[in-house]
Design goal:
65 residues, mainly beta, 1 helix, 42% strand
């Protein structure tokens, strides 16, 4: 998984799985879900991220046991 924040466009991108995007769907305004050719979710884009995410420049990752 890869997370990228672009301050120029104020976009937060989460890449869940690499590969070409076959289809995108704006599930909620400003939240775009990317799918591969099999319909599997491979990415999430958050537009205007600084207004929707508490801290765009830091990230915590935790594996639940």
């Amino acid at each position: 998984m890869k997370a990228t924040y672009d301050p120029k466009t104020d976009t937060l991108s989460l890449e869940l799985k690499s590969g070409p995007v076959a289809e995108s769907d704006e599930d909620k305004p400003g939240v775009i879900l990317d799918y591969d050719e099999h319909g599997d979710l491979i990415g999430i884009e958050v537009l205007d991220a600084s207004k929707r995410v508490a801290e765009t420049r830091t990230m915590q990752f935790q594996v639940a046991e």
